[in-house]
Amino acid sequence: MFKKTIISMFLCLSVLSCLSVSYGSKIDVQHNVVITNKGTRSEGKWGNLLINSNKVPPVFSKIVVAETPYFFIIRNNLWTKGGYWPAKEKESIGYIDKSLSVEQQEKGWYRGTLLECREGTPDFWIWIHRKDVTNFSYWVNPLKLDKFISYFELKAIDSIQAGPLKLLEDKKSMRKS
After folding, report:
1. Is residue 93 in a domain?
2. Phi-psi region for residue 122, left (φ > 0), alpha (ψ -120 to 50) or beta?
3. Has residue 58 been placed in a domain?
4. 122/140 Cα distance (integer angstroms)
5. Which stretches does DSSP call E strand in 9-167?
6. Sign of the alpha-carbon dihedral angle for 53, 20, 25, 84
7. With contact defined as beta carbons under 8 Å apart, do 18 and 12 qualify?
8. Bridge-partner residues for 46, per DSSP?
9. Distances 115 to 106, 112, 161 between C-alpha atoms, Å
10. Are strands 126-129 and 137-140 parallel, antiparallel or unpaired?
11. Which residue of 64, 90, 128, 134 sits 20 to 30 Å from the alpha carbon of 30, by its own alpha carbon?
12. What residue numbers bound the domain in which 126 lies?
């Protein structure tokens, strides 16, 4: 009996450690799965991505956190999976010789591909991409993710495929840096 209890506790702790990953002291990432229409023919799965206990809205096609990519899958039927799902393979981050400016650090984001991480970018920053908008790839401080989404007036991917309204403004400001 005691041996079964110890094994059960170990398995429970192992499962919990897989659900929550902490990157330094500034970011906690969790992926949880919600079963929808449970027990029916329309049973499906929805993947939620939480960063520091805040649910990431469905506005990005891809998010990379410390080389772990999460893809947003649009659900076409009730019985399929949708939402954010982690990939099995890690992704390599590339670094360039440009340094992160004080202005970019304060703002909390800058434009760049996964291979264009600037020197001085904190390890806990995440990379986001939106595939329905040309050149919409950014390095973002996850503590300022709500501000980023609000600034670009991002709409949910599964409801509106239109890009952010303020993209042109940001292109002009980025040319200066």
Report:
1. yes
2. beta
3. yes
4. 10
5. 20-23, 27-36, 44-51, 54-55, 62-65, 68-73, 81-86, 95-99, 109-111, 117-119, 126-129, 137-140
6. negative
7. no
8. 34, 82
9. 22, 8, 26
10. antiparallel
11. 134
12. 20-169
Whole-structure pTM over 0.85, yes or no? Answer: no
pLDDT in tens, 120-175: 999 999 999 998 877 899 999 999 999 999 999 998 886 333 333 344 344 444 44
Q: Is residue 31 part of a domain?
A: yes
Assign 122 to helix, strand or coil. Answer: coil
The residue written with tokens 């906690």 in the block is 28
Token output for 173: 């400001």
Distance CA 34, CA 23 (A): 24
Q: Which residues pair with 111 in a beta bridge?
A: 138
Q: Answer whether residue 2 is part of any domain.
A: no
Grouping H, G, I as helix, E, B as strand and the rest as coil, residue 6 is helix
| Cα 111 to Cα 21, 125, 138, 174, 177, distances in angstroms | 26, 13, 4, 8, 11
